[in-house]
Amino acid sequence: RAVDLDRQQVTTLVGTSAQASRYPPEPGVAPDVALASPWDLALDGDALYIAMTGSHQIWRMDLRSGRVEPFAGSGQEGVQDGPRLQATLAQPSGLALGDGVLYFVDSESSTVRQVSLAEDGVVTTLAGPIWDIFTFGTDDGVGRDARFQHPLGVTRGEDGALLIADTYNNRVRRVDPRTGETSTLFGAEAGWRDGSEPLFFEPGGLDFADGKLYVADTNNHAVRVVDLVTGETQTLVLKGIQRFLAGPGDASFDGQVLRLEPQTVGSGPGEVILDVILPAGYKINEQAPSSMTWQVTGGVVALEPDANRALINPHFPLHIAATFQPGAGVLTADLSLVYCEAVRDSLCLLDQVRLEAPLTVIDGVAPKAVLGYAIAGQ
């Protein structure tokens, strides 16, 4: 599919939304060509290469004519090198373009391979075993002496080396495409750790830009950033999440809506207290902003000017200055709360809730309203 980032429109380039019923799938003209589990893409001018994992092939789409057809792989599963349409592949997954070649990780055979882009191109194995699809491991080495386990992602570094998401080994590996020399850059056992000796949990995808390697750390539910100059790894924190959430009164609000017990509060200057209780073993994310927005019906309360704001590392309860006016109405708080495991940030969650607090404001009592909410345990 194609996403127009300027128009914010998604269109289908090729595919019928159903897996191809024939094996291997039949070529044709887009968009009405049934595919079989496409996994990754690589664009070279008007040629779009598709990792067709379900049919053990790599396909090519001509973006000018719409023609879609096999480019490499016979459709049989295997590790046989040779002319591109006669070679056998085993669940090709990640793709990366080089100088006149397309690199790919063959996940089921645990190998790193390449196919030249010429019409008479051939498939060759750069690293990993070439005799069967059941040999795997963590060994570094040259060519067929190296071992991987179900690698899913590949990208090219600044020096032209291939960077591999060695998924089931929880590692990031490096392969020299000229020699097949393979080494381990980062990772060991499954885990979560930033710093100079990072741990990953089945990393699935990679991309490289400006000296940094971005890792989709699949089973840690995170994006990690590796500085290839310093060797330091950090976890990417997405900021500005509140921009994507429904605003006060928006009918498209997707969180839960809680109607709180009615309260009677005093008129005049006072405060609104927002108290959130997290599940045991969790903490508010210290970097990703949570947020709160407010609305009032009945004109019963005016909040401080910056009441609608991002919450960076908030400490509950929050005290918000308010002025109450006699009458009856509803004070509504829309909360977006990002919280993580307290011991290690291996799992972060987003909780959205709308708290509706009916208020009756009279003279003679304390000018204080309390909105309390406890996030359910996981």
Quick one: overall form? elongated
Using only C-alpha atoms, the radius of gyration works out to: 27 Å
How many domains make up the coordinates? 2
Number of extended strands:
32
Helix content: under 10%
Q: Give the overall average pLDDT.
A: 92
**What is the CATH class designation of the largest domain?**
Mainly Beta
Strand fraction equals over 45%
First-to-last CA distance: 35 Å
Description:
This protein has strands spanning about 1-5, 10, 30, 40-45, 45-50, 55-60, 65-70, 80-85, 90-95, 100-105, 110-115, 120-125, 140, 155, 160-165, 170-175, 180-185, 205-210, 210-215, 220-225, 235, 255-260, 265, 270-275, 280-285, 290-295, 300-305, 310, 320-325, 325-340, 350-360, 370-375. The protein folds into 2 domains: about 15-235, Neuraminidase (6 Propeller); about 255-375, Immunoglobulin-like (Sandwich), CATH 2.60.40. It contains no helices and 32 strands. Strands 22, 23, 25, 26, 28, 30 and 31 form a 7-stranded mixed sheet that branches. Strand 11 (about 110-115) and strand 12 (about 120-125) form a beta hairpin. By secondary structure, it is mainly β. The chain is elongated and about 90 Å long.
Give the tags.
378 residues; mainly beta; Neuraminidase; Immunoglobulin-like; 2 domains
In short:
The protein has 378 residues and is mainly β. The protein is 0% helix and 48% strand. A hairpin with a 4-residue loop joins strand 19 (212-217) and strand 20 (222-227).
